[in-house]
Amino acid sequence: MDLFRRFSGERDEPDRVGVFVDGPNVFRSEFDVDLDDIRQIGESYGPLAATRLYVDENASPGLIQAAEARGFEVVTTSGDVDVRLAVDATEAVVADRIDVLVVASRDTDFKPVLEVAAREGVTTVALAPGEHGRSDALQNAAHDALSLRGDVE
Q1: Sign of the CA dihedral 24, 71, 124, 113?
Q2: Stretch (H or E) spanning 73
Q3: pLDDT tens-digit profile of 27-70?
Q4: Where residue 1 falls among pLDDT bands split at 50, 70, 90?
Q5: pTM, whole model, 2 decimals?
Q6: What is the CATH number of domain 13-147?
Q7: How many Cβ atoms are within 10 Å of 26's Cβ, its own excluded?
Q8: pLDDT of residue 132
Q9: Using only C-alpha atoms, what is the Rg of the chain?
Q10: Cα separation of the two ends of the chain
Q11: Rounded to whole angstroms, how far apart are CA atoms 57 and 131?
Q12: Stronger pLDDT, 4 or 146, i.e. the higher one
């Protein structure tokens, strides 16, 4: 699709959504996050073109199994999860594979990813794992800022 059509909204097809989840920052003991909720939020913007959960080598087999059962592609890295997620999300944007980018994290490292996506005409969504897991920088950089009701009292 050319940039004019992207910016003008002239598309016949529904928006393609990419959901990128920062596992180490979202699946923490202080949050009670449900993968189904993340998926539903992504689907509320259109059909899912990419659903990825990024984890490190310490991720529990139960989390990986649950994510795969819910249709998430699990990307396991031995290095920095943030770098891999940021590169993959940016690549999906510039390759014109998504029209909406949902980043589930509380890490301000993803602010540049949201900014690049917005400059490319992609709608951006910052999804916090809970009210106490919000990053003001991410929320302010995104078109939409949402929080899961996942804080554990």
Answers
A1: positive
A2: strand 73-77
A3: 887 888 899 999 999 999 999 999 999 999 999 999 999 999 99
A4: very low
A5: 0.88
A6: 3.40.50.1010
A7: 24
A8: 73
A9: 15
A10: 46
A11: 27
A12: 146
Domain range annotation of the chain: 13-147
The residue with tokens 């909204």 is 9
pLDDT of 130 over the 90 cut: no
Residue 44 amino acid letter: S
61: tokens are 């087999």
What does the alpha-carbon distance between residue 130 and residue 5 come to, in Å, rounded to a whole number?
35
Q: DSSP letter string over 79-130?
A: S-HHHHHHHHHHHHHHTT--SEEEEE-S-GGGHHHHHHHHHTT-EEEEEESS
Q: How far apart are CA 104 and CA 16, in angstroms?
A: 17
At residue 45, the 3 state secondary structure works out as coil
